[in-house]
Write a structure and sequence with these properties.
SDR_fam, oxidoreductase activity, acting on CH-OH group of donors, oxidoreductase, single chain, 330 residues, NAD(P)-bd_dom_sf, binds magnesium ion, binds nicotinamide-adenine-dinucleotide, seven-stranded parallel sheet
Amino acid sequence: MLDEKLILSREEALKSGTDGSSQKSGHQTATGSASKAQLKNPLDAYPRPPYSTEKQQAPGLASKLTPLADHGEKTYKGSGKLLGRKALITGGDSGIGRAVAIAFAREGADVAINYLKEEESDAQEVIELIEQAGRKGFAIPGDLTDRHFCEKLVEEAVQKLGGLDILVNNAGRQQAVEALADLTDESFDKTMKTNIYAPFRVTKAALPHIPAGGSIIITSSIQAFDPSAILFDYAQTKAANVAFAKSLAKQLAPKGIRVNAVAPGPFWTPLQPAGGQLMNALPQFGSETPLKRAGQPVEISPLYVLLASEEASYCSGQVFGAAGGIGMDS
Ligand code: NAD
Ligand code: MG
């Protein structure tokens, strides 16, 4: 059963500053009241720093985040943009991938999610949310650093979904290390295997199944453009993700398959307290952005919806950002 407390209510999200009057804003304004609804002010629509300093063991759980993240559980309203589509999302249990899974399902897609077995509880909530949206949800746990599993994942997803139109390569590993001398070969290798090898392998296995009109999306990062000192290995993988999208878009254009990257700035997800940041920096996560806070996963899922949908039929080989006011070239 979905635990009610795991779903951040709008009220909770607004506690940190607004008067709560934007209740009808954003995705909730699909009906006639849109013109009367008050605009959501992005400065204070969601919790601002300081955040909790509670460290998690990688890969971390959405259910243990303080404050809980908003993946759109109570707010995302679909409008049939992905009706009948079949999507596979890696890292679909928590964070950005979870918000994308919820949005895709509410837009009418059946969704398979991959995650690590330690994340089963997060994943089961996502499956419930997909089913509550009236769509089919499939949980396929497994480790993407295993080449054979990457192939097995696609095979199982295609078989369960009955095809594959949309692939979101979103799973990622991020471990902050202050000095190069302390970055072990094993850790470097695991980051490369998760963030570079897995999207290559999953996409290669998926391609024979993706028809013309299909869409491939990869989650890169602002780190591709403005790497942090403590994310030496991770930042390189995210730059590779940009090249993945730009190169593959050219290769697949003749087949009618679009490929794009999304480059998030700081988002409040388990990745960060599970080793992605130095613990002393975690409370101020996102405060360096002009919007002075971390983004919530629900604030980026609409980009994935657009890129997955036919409405973005002329968008390929691009990088789309959401980074609280930080530009990709800054
Ligand atoms: P998250 O922890 O919620 O999601 C990452 C997911 O990756 C995990 O849920 C896990 O299921 C999956 N994963 C990691 N290693 C795996 C493995 N070996 N096999 C299978 N799955 C594995 O965090 P998130 O922030 O939502 O991360 C999603 C993507 O967003 C990542 O690619 C990350 O690099 C990127 N990103 C995040 C931020 C941010 O600030 N949170 C910023 C830029 C980019
Ligand atoms: Mg997770």
